[in-house]
Write a structure and sequence with these properties.
The complex is a heterodimer of chains A (142) and B (145). Chain A has 142 residues and is mainly α. Chain A has 6 helices and no strands. The chains are: A mainly alpha (142), B mainly alpha (145). Chains A and B meet through helix 2, helix 3, helix 4, helix 5 and helix 6 of A and helix 2, helix 3, helix 4 and helix 5 of B.
Chain lengths: 142, 145
């Protein structure tokens, strides 16, 4: 078994998961673009509460994506579940450590960090390292 | 990462948990010592000694790497049930904290508040550990632990 090849050889459950992810993924992209446009255009005209509510709109498709993932996870067999959580655990620990190291460097004024970028980057970083963690999990657990 | 769920056999901690707690104690003591060392050294070092400053700035990360290694070993040695609880807790913590930081990013972009980069970065790991502890309690309870 090659863990790298297995990453692109999908089970029916995985195929269903990727198919179901398309709609929330597109909704996320559309809401991000729409919200960015509206907040930039009406920052000075609209009340603060409306802007805050608008800014949180892209969280809804993100929650939808996580719901699709949970459905996929429920349908995984025991071995697949172990690999999934193995990947997430590796992603969390590595990204957490990297952020902590960056934070220390920033705290000691050795690098300048952009708070917005740091906050935005956390979830995508975990997702990226999770994919690598899955490869490690498949390799470790045959 | 503190062991927050009942990981006991007849009121005694299992050997993997005992080993993990020993490493946890050691790494946290090292962390506290190295953090103080790092702060003192950075105050004394000249501003242009950038390499040395980065080295001392990153010193407190070393005991955390030790902690992650100890946790990975504990998960490897734990029984199937305990391993599932640990890993599921981390997964839930990742999703919760990830969404939390994403929300913070959106609100920052909308001008609701201004995020401090250093504080945001340094808060990720403690937030993950805190969420992991809460998730572990809930999951262990759902399995009847």
């Amino acid at each position: 078994m090659n863990p790298f090849i297995d990453m692109v050889r999908f089970t029916p459950n995985e195929k269903r998961y990727y198919r179901n992810s398309i709609a929330p993924g597109l909704a996320f992209l559309a809401s991000m673009a729409g919200v960015a446009f509206l907040v930039r255009s009406f920052r000075d005209d609209w009340p603060f509460e409306v802007l805050a509510g608008l800014a949180l709109l892209p969280v809804l498709p993100m929650v939808w994506i996580i719901k699709v993932y949970i459905d996929y996870f429920r349908d995984c067999d025991e071995w697949e579940k172990l690999i999934e959580v193995y990947g997430i655990a590796i992603g969390v620990l590595l990204v957490g450590m990297a952020y902590f190291a960056l934070g220390l460097l920033g705290l000691f004024k050795l690098v300048v960090l952009d708070g917005t970028l740091i906050a935005y980057g956390m979830l995508p970083s975990v997702m990226l390292v999770y994919s690598l963690g899955k490869v490690v999990g498949r390799w470790r657990h045959g | 990462m503190l062991a927050t769920t009942p990981v006991r056999d007849d009121d005694r901690l299992t050997p993997p948990v005992q080993r993990y707690l020993r490493w946890l104690l050691l790494s946290m003591s090292m962390y506290a010592t190295l953090l103080v060392t790092s702060i003192v050294a950075l105050r004394a070092l000249p501003v242009d000694a950038l390499g040395l400053r980065i080295g001392f700035g990153l010193l407190p990360v070393l005991p955390l790497l030790l902690l992650v290694w100890a946790f990975a070993r504990y998960v490897r040695e734990a029984d199937e049930m305990q391993r599932l609880i640990e890993l599921q807790s981390l997964a839930i913590a990742a999703a919760g904290v990830g969404i939390g930081f994403l929300v913070a990013g959106f609100l920052d972009s909308a001008g609701v508040f201004a995020l401090d980069g250093e504080l945001t970065a340094i808060l990720v790991l403690p937030a993950l550990f805190g969420a992991y502890g809460v998730a572990k309690c809930l999951i262990a309870r759902s399995y009847g632990g």
